[in-house]
Structure formats: C-alpha cells, structure tokens
Design the sequence.
C-alpha cells in the first residue's frame, strides 16, 4: 500500500487476500512463539522471525496509506479464507479513494487452491492490468 501511495511509476494495484490489520490475525499467537523460540511457522511452512515483529506488526494498519492511493485497485479475496477474513478486504475497499473493484471468489481459501480458483484470480488480474496499464 505504501509504495502504491507514493510511487508515480505504479499505474494499478491488484491485491490477493490482503491483510490490512496484522495484529488481530496473528500477533498474540505468533509474538509469543517468536519470543519463546525465536521464530514460528505457519501451516504452509513459511518461517517468521523477530523481523516480522519489527516490520508488519509495527505497521499494523494499512488503511492510512491505502487512502492515499490514486491509481485503480482490484482486490481479490476468497469467501472461505481462514487466514485473512474477507472483512479485511471489505474494510480496505471501503477506505480506498480511487477507482476500485472487489472480487469475492465464492468458496475460495487464502491461496485459491480449489478447482479453478487460481485460474479465476489470474484471469481477473490479467484483465484488470490489461485495462489499466
């Protein structure tokens, strides 16, 4: 969000299942694990270290930067996303002051792993960029 808000080279933005508020999603669980062990991993095996606490958790609210974006934004989010709730994308959408589009992929999870879901996300992204770049 921050880069899109200030970089004139950015002509359009597509967000897939964006996290707008990090702390409600992971902070307590992950912070405790990171402080205890020095790292933690999510269900997909991605490793998170203390740097996460200094970056993503430090800048918990992306809405301030999102309100500054002037280029078109497309948000794609699955309705069955257990990692980042669709409500976060709806909040982002509500706070954007630009041309915007929210696509809720029915039944899709956070990584669009169901049949045809990833293809829909890619197709929508290509169409959006094709129109705006």
Sequence:
């Amino acid at each position: 969000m921050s880069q899109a808000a200030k970089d004139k080279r950015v002509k359009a933005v597509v967000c897939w299942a964006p996290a707008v508020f990090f702390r409600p999603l992971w902070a307590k669980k992950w912070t405790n694990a990171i402080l205890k062990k020095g790292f933690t991993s999510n269900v997909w095996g991605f490793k998170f270290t203390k740097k996460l606490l200094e970056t993503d958790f430090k800048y918990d609210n992306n809405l301030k930067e999102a309100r500054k974006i002037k280029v078109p934004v497309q948000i794609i989010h699955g309705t069955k996303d257990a990692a980042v709730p669709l409500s976060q994308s709806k909040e982002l959408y509500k706070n954007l002051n630009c041309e915007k589009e929210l696509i809720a992929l029915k039944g899709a999870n956070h990584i669009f792993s169901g049949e045809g879901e990833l293809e829909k996300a890619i197709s929508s992204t290509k169409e959006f960029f094709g129109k705006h770049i």
Observations:
- Residues 22-60 form one domain.
- The longest strand covers residues 73-78.
